[in-house]
Amino acid sequence: MLKAQSGVCAEPNLHGLTLFCNVMTDDVDAVRGKLARIPDIISELDDRFSESMLNGFVAVGADYWDVVYPEQKPVYLRRFPELSQGDREAPRQPYDLLLQIRSDRFDANYLAGRTLLEWLGYDVEVVEQLRTFRYLDGRDLTGFIDAPDNPRGLRKRAVALLDPDMDAEFAGGSYLFLQKFRHDLRRWDHLGPERQQQIMGRDKVSGERLAEAEIEGVTHAAKTRLLGADEQPVALLRQNMPWGDLREQGLLGMYFSNQPKTVIDWLKERYYEDEQGHYDPLLDYTQAVTNASFFVPSPDFLKRYRYAIQTDSRQDSDTTE
């Protein structure tokens, strides 16, 4: 079975900590060596806090990949797509690295975050940190069940992870698209449950789709369905979690896939008007203020490059002698 970083396909947790980072050093060898150790650090922390189901990953930004791993690049790794039409836009913010830790204990996440940053040292600067949490029984702060059509069980791995036939060099890795949404909950709550259900296309309590006869217009459910224009399933695993305090709130959307082209089409379906002038109506009540794309390498890939550096260094030393 393909070995991925533990946070990619993990089951939902109660707490999350996401660190948006930029690299502050030109010493690429040092960065590679430190990245290679991160999956093991997370595994050791999981053993220490085994009851909290701790997991996590490190992802490399699309703009930074060519700096740290110029020899090999995932075939479809690109910057986050331009998404802008009318009042709907998703501005891009390039980050070099993304670190995420999730568990059922906030204190374990905090300790894990400190441990990882101590390991990375002054080579990395944290630009933003975001605390996320599980809300009620897996709901967004809009009150609706988040991603009710999300794949489950082994299906998660099938849609999120590259297999050797897709890209042998990066098997076990995953493309990641990130969106940090900020909700306008005052306007949303003012709508009332019935209008909210019409926008979402789902029952607010059960999460079931509304019958076609009950729907008055285009819905969020229709614009985010996991079927493409050819009626084939969209390879997409959403690992979303709410964030916020009493001043501002939203959703951290994280979309993992082994077929990033289909995810881009899925995003465009939400933001751009179709022939009837319809787009995802939920975007009238939330805005993606941070958008970026990454690749989450497998632990084997990270370690393979670490060992290659050490071997090359020894060979250079032998040649010099």
TrEMBL record:
Q: Coiled coil located at which positions?
A: none
A Pfam family it matches: Dyp_perox_C
Arranged from A to Z, the UniProt key words for this protein are: Iron, Metal-binding, Oxidoreductase, Peroxidase
Organism the protein comes from: Idiomarina aquatica
One molecular function GO term is: metal ion binding
Regarding protein family, the annotation reads: Belongs to the DyP-type peroxidase family.
Q: Identify the PANTHER family for this entry.
A: DEFERROCHELATASE/PEROXIDASE (PTHR30521), DYP-TYPE PEROXIDASE FAMILY PROTEIN (PTHR30521:SF0)
Matching entries from InterPro entries are given as: Dimeric_a/b-barrel, Dyp_perox_C, Dyp_perox_N, Dyp_peroxidase
- Transmembrane residue ranges: none
Report the superkingdom from the record. Bacteria
Q: Where is the Dyp-type peroxidase N-terminal domain?
A: 40-133
Any one GO cellular component localisation term in the record:
cytosol
How is this protein named in the record?
Peroxidase
